[in-house]
């Protein structure tokens, strides 16, 4: 069944690094409002704004101390309401980030829980006694160290940072408060939410230890706290009491969900509209939390994972496609192995890929400029708590300091959190003040100061939104096509007797291939031209093309 959100094109904003309107070095809500024209010109239809709520910023806003207030760094509720009004005027909807697996330890609820042992708020969180002077079990938190933090004679649980105590979803009263808060935001007229860490809300109630999986003697908490049986009750209730009443768009951050369970998550009666599938995003590492476990991936591995994701989701629902976000490295640096090819051409090839897959594309700020990773030479230059943890864990696992630095340069979440490079003037159009985090090495950190990549994104967006191929690109059936060349990614999209093929050479060698069908016309190409003779195509390094073919198998 068609839904209103299926043809949205989303742009993700990391507010701290998007645009600083008052020159204090920190991006803010008014900065977003200032840039609405830019976003409208690009053609996107919706923005997802990472958390803007009151927060001590231990995890840059994913540690909320007041769900119903805006952090002063970002502005005020009036500023937000203005953004909501102004964005409506230009046809851009707003998704907010919903963080309800945990709060900040500076949230009123948690403070009251600590102050008074008999307070009802004690049961809003997870407190346990230690065993023989040790924490209740050996689980490792996502950001490293034990999931348990001691206060007085007991411990509280945190799947992420110790300043992010987990809420106790077993407690109905707590759940009801969360639902009321969600509805309060939906009443304001936002389109919906991206929902943070939502598969962590159910914990195995035995809280038992498991065999260790690292040099720290701990074991990742994921086995006992992520996608655990019983979560379905919480997720269904959450949907029914909130999102469903408003026909809101919801995108669950749900790594690790098995394809067999996708129906429950995003099927016709699923918990969410869409979920992010990380199986192809984390291609370069064995696990998104252990960056020192790098893979030696090949294009065919990436392609198989991406295609599997598309095909599995197509059977039951809608995809949320992304190549970058605020937790991932820049895609040019991640997927293009040869530094000399991390350029405009490759950025455009990746744009073709993202924009022609079946599902809603999510473009991350700066991706449309071809921004790249930075290289930092000292651990002190990193802000991201996950980078710092991975650095020290790598060393503990036996790697040298240089190796550890290399792992985090490749994966650091700071890579996508450096300020937007709006131009090459002083302050790069982001701020006149020193930014809260260092800019990336701008000369090398961006491949498109001349708007070439931006214009290409714009073209692709308009092709998807308002061309004769719109319906096809949005609703067309996805089919993978096997081309016997390692670096070639090829798939078709098909709708009402119209058919497109997408070819991407994700490699540095020129390759000759044979198309499965005769080509009618080339719709988009990231090179000046393309050599096609009947079905024979010569694909240059990182060349990407979209072609129309006749649908009659000739
Ligand atoms: C996932 C978010 O995307 C990430 O940035 C954050 O650190 C964790 N969840 C914890 O909220
Ligand atoms: Ca500011």
Automatic annotation (TrEMBL):
<dbReference type="InterPro" id="IPR013780">
    <property type="entry name" value="Glyco_hydro_b"/>
</dbReference>
<dbReference type="InterPro" id="IPR045857">
    <property type="entry name" value="O16G_dom_2"/>
</dbReference>
<dbReference type="GO" id="GO:0004556">
    <property type="term" value="F:alpha-amylase activity"/>
</dbReference>
<dbReference type="InterPro" id="IPR056300">
    <property type="entry name" value="SusG-like_C"/>
</dbReference>
<protein>
    <submittedName>
        <fullName>Alpha-glucosidase</fullName>
    </submittedName>
</protein>
<keyword id="KW-0326">Glycosidase</keyword>
<dbReference type="InterPro" id="IPR006047">
    <property type="entry name" value="GH13_cat_dom"/>
</dbReference>
<dbReference type="Pfam" id="PF00128">
    <property type="entry name" value="Alpha-amylase"/>
</dbReference>
<dbReference type="InterPro" id="IPR017853">
    <property type="entry name" value="GH"/>
</dbReference>
<keyword id="KW-0378">Hydrolase</keyword>
<comment type="similarity">
    <text>Belongs to the glycosyl hydrolase 13 family.</text>
</comment>
<dbReference type="GO" id="GO:0009313">
    <property type="term" value="P:oligosaccharide catabolic process"/>
</dbReference>
<feature type="domain" description="Glycosyl hydrolase family 13 catalytic">
    <location>
        <begin position="12"/>
        <end position="417"/>
    </location>
</feature>
<dbReference type="Pfam" id="PF23915">
    <property type="entry name" value="SusG_C"/>
</dbReference>
């Amino acid at each position: 069944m068609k839904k209103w959100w299926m043809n949205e094109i989303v742009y993700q904003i990391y507010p701290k690094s998007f645009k600083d309107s008052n020159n204090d070095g920190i991006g803010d809500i008014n900065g977003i409002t200032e840039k609405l024209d830019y976003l409208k010109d690009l053609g996107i239809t919706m923005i997802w704004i990472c958390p803007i709520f009151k927060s001590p910023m231990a995890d840059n806003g994913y540690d909320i101390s007041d769900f119903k207030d805006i952090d002063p760094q970002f502005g005020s509720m009036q500023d937000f309401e203005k953004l909501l009004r102004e964005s409506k005027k230009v046809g851009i909807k707003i998704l907010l980030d919903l963080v309800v697996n945990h709060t900040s330890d500076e949230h009123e609820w948690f403070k009251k829980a600590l102050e008074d042992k008999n307070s009802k708020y004690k049961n809003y969180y997870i407190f346990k006694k230690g065993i023989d002077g040790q924490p209740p079990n050996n689980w490792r938190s996502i950001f490293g160290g034990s999931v348990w933090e001691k206060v007085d004679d007991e411990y509280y649980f945190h799947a992420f940072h110790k300043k992010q105590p987990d809420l106790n979803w077993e407690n109905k009263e707590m759940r009801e408060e969360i639902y009321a808060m969600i509805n309060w935001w939906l009443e304001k007229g936002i389109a919906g939410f991206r929902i943070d860490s939502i598969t962590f809300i159910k914990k195995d109630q035995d809280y038992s230890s498991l065999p260790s999986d690292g040099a720290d003697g701990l074991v990742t908490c994921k086995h006992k706290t992520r996608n655990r049986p019983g979560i379905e009750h919480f997720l269904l209730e959450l949907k029914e009491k909130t999102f469903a009443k408003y026909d809101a768009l919801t995108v669950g951050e749900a790594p690790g969900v098995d394809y067999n369970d996708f129906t429950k998550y995003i099927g016709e009666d699923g918990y969410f509209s869409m979920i992010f599938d990380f199986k192809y995003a984390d291609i370069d590492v064995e696990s998104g939390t252990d960056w020192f476990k790098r893979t030696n991936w090949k294009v065919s591995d990436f392609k198989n994972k991406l295609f599997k994701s598309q095909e599995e989701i197509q059977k039951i629902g809608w995809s949320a496609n992304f190549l970058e976000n605020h937790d991932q490295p820049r895609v040019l640096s991640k997927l293009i192995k040869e530094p000399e090819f991390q350029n405009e051409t490759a950025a455009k090839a990746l744009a073709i890929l993202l924009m022609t897959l079946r599902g809603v594309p999510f473009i991350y700020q700066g991706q449309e400029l071809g921004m790249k990773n930075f290289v930092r030479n000292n651990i002190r230059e990193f802000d991201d708590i996950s980078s710092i943890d991975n650095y020290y864990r790598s060393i503990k696992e036996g790697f040298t300091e240089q190796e550890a630095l290399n792992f985090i340069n490749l994966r650091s979440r700071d890579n996508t959190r450096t300020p937007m490079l709006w131009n090459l003037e002083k302050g790069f159009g982001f701020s006149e003040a020193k930014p809260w985090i260092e800019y990336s090495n701008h000369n090398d950190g961006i491949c498109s100061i001349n708007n070439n990549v931006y214009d290409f994104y714009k073209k692709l967006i308009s092709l998807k939104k308002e061309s004769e191929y719109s319906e096809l690109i949005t609703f067309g059936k996805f089919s993978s096509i096997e081309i016997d060349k390692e670096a070639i990614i090829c798939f078709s999209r098909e709708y009402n007797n119209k058919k497109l093929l997408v070819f991407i050479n994700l490699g540095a060698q020129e390759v000759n291939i044979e198309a499965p069908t005769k080509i009618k016309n080339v719709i988009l190409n990231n090179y000046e031209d393309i050599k096609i003779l009947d079905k024979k195509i010569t694909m240059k390094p990182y060349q990407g093309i979209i072609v129309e073919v006749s649908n009659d198998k000739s």
